[in-house]
Amino acid sequence: MPLTKLSSRDFNQDVGRAKRAAESGPVVITDRGKPAYVLMRHAEYERLTGGRRSLRDLLVMPDGDDIEFDPPKANIKLKIPDLS
Hints:
Elements: E1 4-7, H1 8-13, H2 15-22, E2 27-31, E3 34-39, H3 42-49, H4 55-59
Parallel strand pairs: 1-2
Antiparallel strand pairs: 2-3
């Protein structure tokens, strides 16, 4: 899998080139000569992460419906302790 390096300037000027390069391997985008970002195909990202989803993604309702939640009011009574 070849690794391609592009400066952020080159990336901005030719995004299509970066996308084509990402077809065959990761593209490292540098900022001031230092690696800053990596561009890769989403399928490759999924393979590397094992398709793991975040906790937020797991808790989102798939159809977007809200859950009705009407809890009963708490019946809390103040009890004054006898300190005598």
